[in-house]
Write a structure and sequence with these properties.
Helices cover about 5% and strands about 30% of the residues. It is mainly beta and about 170 residues long.
Length: about 170
């Protein structure tokens, strides 16, 4: 007779092998109060799939002179999962800088994600990364910025003001 306490019920083997997952619920701050959405992190073979679905993004506005454009929107993992607004003119500075566990130059570190394109306020995207595991990002902050990341400026890419924030939480981990 099989010992189910030691091995688990055979019908539940799917749940033992389910992928590790995490998510962040994104909420806009004072500069984009209608911005909201979700970001999911799912362990897949050789890395992590990141899936984002966001609404309420500001529409694209061309940059002029020394003023950066609004959109496409910088999208990053930040060091701290703290989404306190603080200064309403510079919200979410409590999330710290980009998460960069391997001290790579900006443009090639784990916290750098592709930009989000606003389609009448809506963005949906998924991408693959092998720069971290799901367990590594739990407790980090996801930030959506006003402007695109230039992937060159050190240490954080000049992506402009922080529009929204979410804390990454484990799900089935």
């Amino acid at each position: 007779m099989m010992n189910y306490y030691q091995y688990g019920h055979p019908g539940y083997s799917y749940y033992r092998s389910a992928p590790n997952m995490a998510f962040a619920q994104i909420q806009g701050g004072p500069l984009a109060p209608g911005l909201k959405g979700y970001v999911f992190f799912r362990e897949v073979q050789n890395g992590v799939e990141v899936y984002a679905e966001i609404t309420g993004l500001p529409s694209y506005k061309e940059g002029k002179g020394d003023q950066n454009p609004i959109g496409p929107h910088g999208f990053h993992l930040h060091e701290k999962g703290v989404c306190e607004i603080g200064d309403p003119k510079e919200p979410f500075s409590s999330a710290g800088g980009h998460w960069n566990p391997t001290n790579h130059p900006h443009g090639n570190h784990a916290g750098d994600f592709p930009v989000l394109f606003s389609n009448d306020g809506y963005a949906k995207m998924s991408f693959f990364t092998n720069k971290f595991k799901v367990k590594d990002v739990i407790g980090k902050g996801v930030i959506i910025h006003q402007s695109p990341d230039d992937y060159r400026s050190q240490p954080s890419g000049d992506a402009g003001k922080r529009l929204a924030c979410g804390v990454v939480m484990g799900y089935g981990v």
